[in-house]
């Protein structure tokens, strides 16, 4: 299964903010959209990603104010991305080795979606269910 197949099921909706937004504004959008990370996109260019983990480690633990801090101060700029044709095994390996939970999907340097560890796990479970069903029908024939 590929990233594109996940996006075709999940959808390609992407939420983004600007690096000049406050962290509080970013958290508000994340809460409203029920997402764990948000992309920072400026002029169609992916500039970074901000996750709940970034907030916890770079604002809360350092006793900073989310209403005074800007996204560019805490966002991750070294963003790990994938392409629509990448397979799930590759995504899992990236998420594991790079210790990230979200992978923006780029096509021709433009963000066309984002997948999370949850999306990958769900897809793998569905593939395993299909395999089990196929094997069961083979055995019972």
From TrEMBL:
PROSITE patterns named in the record: CBS (PS51371)
SUPFAM superfamilies registered for this protein in UniProt: CBS-domain pair (SSF54631)
Domain CBS: 8-66, 75-131
This protein's record includes keyword Nucleus: no
Alphabetical UniProt keywords: CBS domain
Annotated protein name in UniProt: CBS domain-containing protein
Organism: Flavobacterium yafengii
